[in-house]
Every structure is written in structure tokens, then in C-alpha cells.
Amino acid sequence: MEAAAQQRGGVPEEMVKSILLREADRNGHYVMVCVPGAMRVEPRAVQAALGEGWHRLHFAGADEILDLTGCVQGAVTPIGLPDAVPVIFDETIGRLARCNISSGDPQAGLELAAADLIRVARGRLTAIAAMGAPNPTST
Fold first, then answer.
1. N or C: which end of the chain has fewer CB within 10 A?
2. Residue 34 has pLDDT above 80, yes or no
């Protein structure tokens, strides 16, 4: 994330990863989760936040990411997703004044107010991340 922050002229603390998860049992059931760059997503916390009817979650593959988002793995944005894809932000993102996300283009990021990102992405905040080794990323 430090390299991406440096490339985009941002600071690592404001970098947000967008990770596409899919439900293991049902083809085509996805959720986009966004966590600070230094944190990792906790799939069980995401599943709990989604509620009844959602089962074990796995990281989506590169082909699924491209098909669903129109973005290549490594440049995924949580903005403009199909209505059927819920977007969940870790609660720590809600405490940021500004954040930096992928724009859909591997060479460009998008910096905006965190509150604006959450609103435009039609997302919600909940605790879904923990410190530790980062997950494989979609962003």
C-alpha cells in the first residue's frame, strides 16, 4: 500500500483496499468490502454483518472481479457496482477525513472525503477488519 500511496501522492493511512468476496454456495452472490490498507478483512465478520441467508465467503477470482466490476484485479473501485452487490466499509474508514481508493485504472487513484465515498458507494459501516498480514486484494 505504501507504493500505491507514493504513486498517487497520498499517505498510507488514507489508502483503502476494495476486496470482492463471493458466497461459496451460490454462484453470483457477491459483496464488496473496503478496509484500510494496513488491515485485513475478516470474512466471518462480513458474513455476520450481512445477516441470515449469507454463508461462507471466499475471495473472488480475477475473472469474476473483471466480469462483475469491469476492473482488473488491483484496480477495483467500490463505486458504480450493480445494486445487488452490497458494499461494506470497515468502521475505521468512517473516522477518516479523506481517503484514497482505486479508480478502476491501475495507474490512477481517486482521493475524496471518506463520508462522500461511503455515500456514493451506497455503503455502510461496520467492524470487518483486523490488524495483521494483509489479505489478497482486489484493489
1. N
2. yes
